[in-house]
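Page header: ASSEMBLY MODEL / six components / 810 residues total.
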Amino acid sequence: MVYITRKEHFSASHRLHNPNWSESKNTETFGKCNNLNGHGHNYEIEVTVAGDPPKESGMVMDLKKLSDLIDAEIIERVDHKHMNHDVDFLKGVIPTAENMAIAFWNILKPKIQHARLFSIKLYESPNNFVEYRGE
Amino acid sequence: MVYITRKEHFSASHRLHNPNWSESKNTETFGKCNNLNGHGHNYEIEVTVAGDPPKESGMVMDLKKLSDLIDAEIIERVDHKHMNHDVDFLKGVIPTAENMAIAFWNILKPKIQHARLFSIKLYESPNNFVEYRGE
Amino acid sequence: MVYITRKEHFSASHRLHNPNWSESKNTETFGKCNNLNGHGHNYEIEVTVAGDPPKESGMVMDLKKLSDLIDAEIIERVDHKHMNHDVDFLKGVIPTAENMAIAFWNILKPKIQHARLFSIKLYESPNNFVEYRGE
Amino acid sequence: MVYITRKEHFSASHRLHNPNWSESKNTETFGKCNNLNGHGHNYEIEVTVAGDPPKESGMVMDLKKLSDLIDAEIIERVDHKHMNHDVDFLKGVIPTAENMAIAFWNILKPKIQHARLFSIKLYESPNNFVEYRGE
Amino acid sequence: MVYITRKEHFSASHRLHNPNWSESKNTETFGKCNNLNGHGHNYEIEVTVAGDPPKESGMVMDLKKLSDLIDAEIIERVDHKHMNHDVDFLKGVIPTAENMAIAFWNILKPKIQHARLFSIKLYESPNNFVEYRGE
Amino acid sequence: MVYITRKEHFSASHRLHNPNWSESKNTETFGKCNNLNGHGHNYEIEVTVAGDPPKESGMVMDLKKLSDLIDAEIIERVDHKHMNHDVDFLKGVIPTAENMAIAFWNILKPKIQHARLFSIKLYESPNNFVEYRGE
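Prediction written out in full:
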C-alpha cells in the first residue's frame, strides 16, 4: 500500500463566533479570531489517498485527477470567499480548521473510488494545522 | 553599508473594490478579489534597513528592536483585522498589496533612526508579492 | 478525532559528548557534533494534540493556549541557551534531538488537559528531524 | 521508540509510459507525463527509521551515517539521471513516484541494522508526494 | 514606483551540452549536467514588473493577468517538456538557467504594457538560481 | 549581465559580546544573544556573482565550482563551530550577521575570477537576514 498526497491552496476569510454565547464568552474563547469583520488566511490542504498501485500504471490514482477533484469540490467553493457567509456546506458550522477539515472529508470521501481517502490535513498558517482521518 | 531585514507575519482579510465604479467595472478589474464579503491572507512583511554597523556593536540596528517596532506600529493594527473596515491608516485606500506596502513605508520611515529604511516587501501569498523602496 | 499541531521555534547550541567515553570514541560516534565549544541550530518544534472538537467551540484546544503553553514550558527555558549548560531539565542528558523530544514530551504530557498529547516533532534542521509519540 | 528522519535531494528526469499500451491509452492515463522526451523534477526523499535511542549515545542511529547510506545507495544512482534509461534497479518499472518509493525501500530495508526502516517519503514537487511503509 | 512579482512553476528536463566540443571538454565544463539522457528540475520563475499604481485601482498590474500571461507565453511551452528537444524558442541554445532567463525576458518584454518588465528570476533548485534584468 | 546565486548551509553557535563593555551595557545591547554559553543557528549563505554568460557555455560561472569554493573557503571553517572561539578569520570580531557577511565577502572577493562577486546574503533564521554588497 502506498499513500499519495496532493496539496492545493486557497485564500479565504472567516470569523470564529458562537451566536449562542455572550460577547465576553466569545472573546474569552476565540480571542482575536472573534474580530467582528473577520480575518483571513492562505490555507493549504493536503489530501492523502491510500491504495495499491496497479502494475500497469504504477499509480495509486492519477494525481492530476485528484487535483482536479479537489479543485472542483473544494477550492472552487471556498477560494476568495468568506467562510461564514459564502460557503453553503459550512452554514451553521463554526469555521475552525477542525470543522473545515471534517467538512472537506465528508465531501471528498464518497468521490474517491478504487482507492481510500486516508487523511485531510489543513494548514491555516505554517505554524497552525490540523489533520482529520475519519476516526 | 549592510542591509538588514526582519520578517514578520499577520493574518488579515480585505476586499478590492472601488466605490466609484460600477459592479461590472469592479468585477472586470478585481475579479475574485472583489467578493462582497472579502477574503484573506497570511501576509508576510519584510522590512529592510540599510546602514553602517558601528565597530563596537557590529549591528546596523538591533533586529529585536526592529521587530518590536514593526509589531507595535504595523502588526498590532492589522493582525486578525479586516483591512477595509478595521484599520484607520487604510481608510479610503483600496487595500491592494501595493497600497499597503506604501502605507507601511510611510508609518515606519520616520521611526527608523541612525539608519535608513530601504525597502518594504509584502507577500500576499508565496506566489504574489510587492516591494516599495520609497522611489 | 482531530489532530491539531502548533509549531514553535527556538535557537540554541549544544554539544554531543559522553563524558564516560574516550575522546576517540566520542569523535567516532558524534563526529563534528562533538566539537568542544559546541555548535547550534534553529530548532522547530511541532506539538500535536488529539481530541474531539466540542460542537460549541469547534476546537480540540485553543491553538493560542497551546502556543502559550509551549512558550512558557519549553521555549523560555531553551531559547538562546546552550543545552548542555543552561537547561535544568536536560542536566545529565546528552542533548540529541531524540533526547530533547522525549524531555519535551515529559514536560508537556501532564499539562495537556481535556485532550491528549499525541506527538512531539523536533527539527534540528530542515533535513534532520525526529518524532516521539510516547510509545 | 523514536522516529528519526533524514531528507536528501536529487534532480532527475523520467517519462511515464507503458510500452504495452497504445499511444492514446498512454496519453489518457499519464497526460503530460507521457511526453516522449521526458520531463524532470527536483526530488526530495525522506527516510524515517524507528528505534530506541541507547542511553550512552542518545541516538537511534547516527543521522550522518543514514545520510551517507542514502547517498551511496540511492542518490549516487539517480541524481542527474534519466530514470527510464540510466537506473539499473528501475529497469522495466514505470518510474512513478509510487514505484520509485517502493524500489528505494527495497534497497534500504536490508541495509538498516540495529533499527527499523519505517517509511520512505518521496516528493516529486512540493504539491505531489507519496509515502511507502512496507505495508 | 512599486515592484510586483508573480511566481510560477514548471517541471522540465534538460542537458547541458555544446555539440562543437569534445566529450571530455563537455564533461569537464558541465559535469553531471552533461548526462546523455538529460536530467530535470522543478523550476520556479519569478517575474517582476515595476510601475506606479494608479489611484483608482491601486495595482501596478493585475497579478492574475500577469499570471495568465506567464502561463500562456512560457509555462505552456516548457512545462513537462525536454528543453533541448521540445521548445522552439530554445533551439540552438544551451538551456542553462542563464540562457533560459534571457529567453523568457525576450518573450515577455514586448508583452508587458503600461508597466515595465524589471526582472526574471529563475530557480533551478532552492540552492541554484539566476536573475536577468535586461542589463 | 546575469546574476547567479548559490545557497549553502552551516550550523554554528555564537555569542554577541563586547569585552570592553560592562555586563549591563552588553545585556542592554545584545539581549538574549549575550548569553554566556552562547546559542546557535542554522545559517544559510547566498553568494551572488554577476557576469556575462559566454555563448559557448551559457554559464556566468559553473555553480558547482562556486559551491565547491564556498564549501572550501567558508563552510569548512564555520560549520559545527563556535564562531567566537573556533574561527580564525573572526578573531576579535563580534560575530553578528553583519560582521560575518563582511568577513565572508573579504574571503571570497579575491577568489572569484572572470566574474564579479555581487552580494553575500546571510540568513541567521528565516526571519532575520543581512546582505552585504561591498558598498
